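I hope you will forgive my troubling you with a question about protein structure. You will find the record immediately after this paragraph.
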Amino acid sequence: MYTPLANRFNPTDLAHALPAQPIVVGFSGGLDSGVLLHALAALPAARARGLRAIHVHHGLHPDADGWAEHCQRICAEIGLALHVARVSVDHDLGIGLEAAARHARYAAFRAQLAEHDVLALAHHQDDQAETVLLRLLRASGSDGLAAMHQWRELSPNTIWRPLLKQPRAALLAYAQANALHWIDDPSNAEHGPDRNFLRHQVLPLLRQRWPQASAALARSAELLAEDAQSLRSEAAVRLAGMQTSDPATLSVAALLAHEPPWRARLLRLWIEQQGLPPLRGSAIVIIESQLLHARTDAQPQYRWQGVRMQRWRDLLHVGIEQQPLPADWQATWDTRAQLHLPDGSRLQLDAPFESTVCVRARRGGERIHLPGRNHHHSLRHVLQQRAVPPWQRERLPLLFAADGELLAAGDGILSARWLAWQDQSGARLGWISP
């Protein structure tokens, strides 16, 4: 059995790990974040680096205003600046209230952090143990079971969890010894949420038989994190050899050359690198059967949380799902300011064109005069030759001159007339996705 350090906590334990950047404490007003804020405020070096706090007002509890006032009072007493960020929790995300609140909370953190600020969060050893158990019950692999990391990038910022090796009992003892006041959120006492059930029912039972259960689970997370990092480094090397010039595409043949466990790891890393929501637990099985082993002439898709992964020919494409332009949509653009399209994308030009242009969706039958060609060509054939996926063709804005000539399809297929003007003017057309 793993034996933890003595059940005590001292602010000097944090001194050796202080980052050089300004520290922003996520301060809920509860015991854990109260201890973290008090301990950091006791370190002159932390204050000198711009220590401050942020409280996220979720508006989910009748006492939320009182909690914000409590946090303001505490910060005033110890001479620290506090920002109260009021958020609206989206109940329609389909991920549960707790996860939706967490989503809103992190969005508020990102909005308030200056570049390279370090966000200090008060997760502790017991939180880590709960996370490991939750992820075990969700059949997570080593990446998931590595649970929370003491340091994690939140580009351009960093998350720091300095209390991750401290049991909650040590934090409670510190708070009592220093006569701290904190908020007890009544929702934490409810046994309905999964994490609360583990906290109040499962972990106390485990500790009756194995007193150091939380420490052992947290230590297992550390060991798994080391293993996961080694696998991640190897996966990054393999993934780099499988991607095309477009990082959002992946070679199916290259992926299938790996064993199934590696394919799963590579897919998850690829999704992470694109900044997209992680795949659900069952996603890999579905992607294997329906996308990777589909006929080459099929176009199977897998969707999750507003993301679409689609196979086309030998490539997997992934990205935020975009709607096609309405077939009857068109607009007149003077090219002096950005043009906002119905799907949320934008067209922009560095310098105004010689006249206004008409922008509309594809309707079929369009022809374009490409540079170096003597004749006009079917846009449909040009899109096929350039391997533009069908769902991207549906979104292409077409630019027409006043005389009806097709000037451009998106910003990648440009006519001879447009290129001649572009070379003369030095302007560049940009089609910016949302």
About this structure: Confidence is low (pLDDT under 50) at residues 1-6.
